C-alpha cells in the first residue's frame, strides 16, 4: 500500500511568512545600501570641513583682509554644519538599519515556527501511516499463520 502524500493545511500561511521574510531581507539590504551612501556623504563632508580649515589657516598666515577672513570663517562654519548634518543623518540611517534588522529577525522566527509545525505534522502523518501499514502487515501475517495452521 502506497503512502498518501502529506498535505500541510497551513501551506498558504507558511508561504506568506516566507514571502514576508524575503521582503524584510530585501528592505534590510536596501537600508544597508542607504547607510553606506550616508557614510560616503559624511566622509565627503569631513574632507570638505578639513579643507576649509586648511584654507582658513593659509588665508590667515598670508595676511588676508578682514572680509577674506570672514568669508573663510563662513565657509568653515557651513562645512562644519554639513558635517554635523551628515553625522545626524547617518545616525538616523543606523536606527533604520537596526529596525529593519529587527523586522527580519521577527519574520525569520515566524517562518521558523511554521516550518517546525509543518515538520511536526509531517512526522505525525508518517508515524500514523506507518502504524496503519504495520497493522495491515500484522493482519496478513496472522492470516497466513492461520492458513498454515489449518493445513496441518
From TrEMBL:
Keywords: Bacterial flagellum biogenesis, Bacterial flagellum protein export, Cell membrane, Chemotaxis, Membrane, Protein transport, Transport. InterPro entries: Flag_assembly_chemotaxis_eff, Flagell_FliJ. Residues 46-66 are annotated as: Disordered. GO terms for biological process: bacterial-type flagellum organization; bacterial-type flagellum-dependent cell motility; chemotaxis; protein transport. Coiled coil: none annotated. It is found in: Cell membrane. Pfam families: FliJ (PF02050). This is Flagellar FliJ protein. It comes from uncultured Solirubrobacteraceae bacterium.
Amino acid at each position: 500500500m502506497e503512502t498518501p502524500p502529506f498535505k500541510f493545511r497551513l501551506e498558504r500561511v507558511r508561504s506568506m511568512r516566507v514571502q514576508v521574510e524575503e521582503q524584510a531581507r530585501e528592505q534590510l539590504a536596501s537600508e544597508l545600501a542607504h547607510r553606506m551612501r550616508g557614510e560616503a556623504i559624511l566622509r565627503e563632508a569631513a574632507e570638505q570641513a578639513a579643507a576649509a580649515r586648511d584654507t582658513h589657516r593659509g588665508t590667515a598666515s598670508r595676511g588676508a583682509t578682514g572680509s577674506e577672513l570672514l568669508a573663510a570663517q563662513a565657509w568653515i562654519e557651513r562645512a562644519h554644519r554639513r558635517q554635523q548634518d551628515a553625522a545626524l543623518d547617518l545616525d538616523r540611517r543606523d536606527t533604520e538599519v537596526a529596525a529593519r534588522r529587527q523586522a527580519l529577525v521577527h519574520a525569520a522566527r515566524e517562518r521558523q515556527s511554521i516550518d517546525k509545525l509543518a515538520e511536526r505534522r509531517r512526522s505525525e502523518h508518517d508515524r500514523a501511516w506507518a502504524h496503519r501499514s504495520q497493522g495491515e502487515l500484522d493482519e496478513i501475517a496472522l492470516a497466513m499463520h492461520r492458513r498454515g495452521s489449518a493445513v496441518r
